[in-house]
Structures are given as structure tokens and as C-alpha cells.
Amino acid sequence: MKFYFTYILLCVDNSYYTGMTNDLDRRMTEHQGGKKKSCYTYKKRPLKLVWYIQCTNPSEAIKIEKQIKGWTKRKKKALIDEKWDDLVKFSKNYTEYGKPGSSTGSD
After folding, report:
1. What is the 3-state secondary structure (H, E, C) of the chain?
2. For the chain, which residues make up each domain, given as ranges?
């Protein structure tokens, strides 16, 4: 059976990169080696794999990747830290929850 992975990397500048691959070890080697200068992670090395999920269907892995790419940084952090209550809280409508640091919301 072939597997596909959706993954999140922590970059040296404290940003996150979300990707999808069918070979996680190979892809990590490519990221760390700086295979392409035009890639987001090229100038953000070293990188740390902080989360991944294994799928048997490439369409599912792509769907999860696209979903996570649309998330805020704090929502990604909640996923990585397995803080399920925060993940739910940060999934609320932005106007309902408010901006981080505002009187209606907090990080």
C-alpha cells in the first residue's frame, strides 16, 4: 500500500510551512538540502518536522494540506500541540472570536 503525508515544518524564522508528499524522508532531505532556491523554505533552514498525518489516498492528503494552509498560525500551533479545545476555539469565525490581543480575543 502506498502512503501520502501532509506535514508541517517549523522554519528557523518561527513560521510554518505545510506540504504534502508520498515520501516524507525524501522530502525532508530535499527541504533541508535546499533543493530549489525559489522554495519558501530555502532561506528558512534549518527546518523541523513538527506534525504529520499519513493517508492512503492522495486526494485526502491534498485536501488536508489545503485546509491547514488556510489556517492561522495559532490554529496550526494548536494542532501541533494537540490542544483540541484551542483548535475548536480558533476555528470560530474571525469576527466572532476577534484578533489576537484584542479585548475579545487572546492568543
Report:
1. CCCEEEEEEECCCCCEEEEEECCHHHHHHHHHHCCCCCCCCHHHCCCEEEEEEEECCHHHHHHHHHHHHCCCHHHHHHHHCCCHHHHHHCCCCHHHHCCCCCCCCCC
2. 1-70, 71-107
Residues of the chain where predicted confidence (pLDDT) is lower than 50: 103-107
pTM: 0.84
| 69-95 per-position pLDDT tens digit | 999 999 999 999 999 988 888 887 655
* The domain over range 1-70 is classified in CATH as 3.40.1440.10: yes
